[in-house]
Amino acid sequence: MKSRVKRVLWLVIPAALGAGTLTWVLASGDHRAGHSKRSPEEAASVPQDGSRVAEAVKLAQVRGIDGTLRMAEKYGEWANDPSAISARKRLLSVLFSQEDIGMKLNGVLAAVEADPTPPEKDPLWEHLVTSLADLWKGDVATKAMDLVMAETRPRARRVLISSFAEVATSERLASFTSEQRQTLTETMIDVVPNVPAGQKSEMDRALRVLGGNDLADIMAGKGLTGKDGHVLESERAYNDALEQTKQELADTGKANAP
Amino acid sequence: MKTYRLLTGVALTAAAVAFGGTADAQLRDKKEKMTLPQANAADGINKNLPEQVGGGRGNLTTIGSSIYIINRDPARAIRRGRQLFQRKFLPTQGFSGRDRSGNIHTDPSIGAGVVDSCAGCHGRPRGSAGFGGDVFTRPDSRDAPHLFGLGLQEQLGDEITGKLRAIRAGLAIGQTAQLNADMGGGVVLNYGSITRTGQTTFNTAAVTGVDADLRVRPFFAQGGTVSIREFLVGAFNAEMGIQSFDPDLQAAAVNHQRVVTPSGMVLDGTVDVLEAPPVSSATTDADGDGIANELPVSLVDFEEFYLLHYFKPAKVPGVDTDQVTEINNGRGLFTAAGCGSCHVPDLTINRDRRIADVETTFNAAQGNPFNRLFATASLLGVVVTSQGLPNIRTFESNPAFAQSAAVPARAFVVRNFFADLKRHNLGPNFFERFHDNRTAPQQLFMTEPLWGVGTTAPYGHDGRTHNLEEVILRHGGEATGARNNFNALSRANKNQLIAFLNSLILFSPDDTASNLAGINTNPADPDGTGPIVNQGFPQAGHGAIALTGLFNNTADLE
After folding, report:
1. Which residues 178-197 of A are in CB contact (within 8 Å) with B?
2. Fold adopted by B314-383+411-505
3. Taking residues B258-271, what's their average pLDDT?
4. Which domain holds residue A138?
5. Which of A22, A151, A232 sits opposite B493 (nearest CB)?
6. Between chains, do A151 and B333 touch, taking CB under 8 Å as contact?
7. What is the value of pTM for the model shown?
8. What is the pLDDT of residue A82?
9. Which of residues 40-99 of A touch B (CB under 8 A)?
């Protein structure tokens, strides 16, 4: 690994962990209700507030960590304003365009955390998930899987997990090495017990791709005791092999009988 | 400032030289061994004990001192610690069978076995700081645990302690709080709750899994010791009869001061109860063998630094597609059965003090025939030049951090750890008697980290259980639910879960190919003393995790 790249990668986890911690406190609790999910296209049909777009453009000109954190803060502040969708997308675009991967994730995850909207009702959630998924290539992907395990902020963690579920269920997975794919599988297994209920279905889809039907069923609690009537594919294969062996032994016994 | 690069090419050459010191699992001093007829010149430790002691502790400008080497030539410091770990001590160096007279009730260590090297108890797999010995400190015996990942374990315990104490410090009088250590990834370790009752008083009746002082003690089965430094100084005394006057432990444990060891561990005697060194001065000959200062402080420094950096265990995700599926299913079953509620798979350290990490996994293409593993070392530090002397390695920092006070400086995710660093009651089948027939046996034990568990039979702190299935079924108490869930699995599913546990392994570093020393093909005459009789064995097609290539002076062997 080139030294510069390596150094940058080591910045990713702590940088992302930190900045959002500051912005988390900026999100007020009363923002958390009252949203209905709309696609960005639907949202765009709401007349957009040009002054906010202008403010976003102005904010984008502030360089460094201060500018990044200010944009993240505004992204959260405007979350309950449907007329600010365009401005918020502009902010995200600037945050994603940062060249330094550490600074990029620092800003994006801080913005995600500053937004109190439940993901199920967030019109920009899918855009965030797929944009992050597009970043997970090469060593960045490896370090970002560590970030999933290190992230303490709930919304930031959720979007990271969703972005890797998106990788698992898309053509992006083809760019992962077998080692990365295995790490992703283990990561998904390890985080399943702690994801919110609303995230279980995407985890199920990801696990089915990564580890097969049995793994997804196991993580969903199916087929563990036999009481639910569900038999895992591996268990069926084991039992079939056992029966076949018994049958072969019995047949051999008959053939050899005097 | 620039990132230190792995000197792979140099290491490949130097690795063959390094093998010369790794032929035995326990090592005799090379200069001693050379007195034997037909000695193999390649075997043994290159430096004798006074050379290992070097310039004492010294400071950053004392050439040859432990502080100088740890900071300016850290690979050498680690290697020296390793050689010390393998060293077979002589009676003339302080090793002795201990005087067995005395009261075992008040000094359980006199019931310990006597061994002449650390590797004598921690020696499996071959050449590793692994497991293997039976440490007779209890009537029911204790198995010597492996030391893989020891530094990560120390750091996890220390950081969890900090989180718990921060919660305590934030309480107002009359306020109660859950002791939740948020470890990232959605993992929250709960240690019960605590109530502030006064300016300096607390009700700790509801604290669980840790002492009332909230200090997580990650070492020993009962969770008795805070630091690697206490651990090693205590073991040298109890198991080898070698007493160290360690000024750091003396200052922290006896004089109640706050000290920072050369490895960066804070021993704070103002708030923690720590273990005192066995002697209170460098001139005290506690065991009356005519030798004082049997383990000088520089050797303690090197040993601590070595163990801080000791390799994490490896994992074998599967040697073919079918086995990968089986092991992944097993990991899922492990989680679904509830085993992971105490054997937590992954925990995060916010500030890693190590200068390197080594990731070891199955690799049929690059591994050697001994284990088909391949280790990848990554250096975590950077180098700054300093006053014409060799560089001092310092930790990376992000310019952005300075503007955000809440940022952890050096996070590291400890994957495949499988423990929660809490004490639990696992039921009477795990209870342990004391020598003094106390009415209550030891009932609480730290959750055993499962990394390496596939290669450490027999199981239990006492080695009473022969395989993994039986030791799972031995669980009771707080683990009764998970045990019952396991027991309810079909045979096929049990097999998958066990296959997963067997994928968590230890390894022999000397027999594991790595990016520091890939598979070599010509190991002839590695130290220039003449051809080796058994040329080609076992070094041909070998490879190792060899640090020599990273020394400032690769010709100066340890």
Report:
1. 179, 182, 185-186, 189-195
2. Cytochrome Bc1 Complex; Chain D, domain 2 (1.10.760)
3. 97
4. 3-26+36-211
5. A232
6. no
7. 0.88
8. 92
9. 64-66, 69
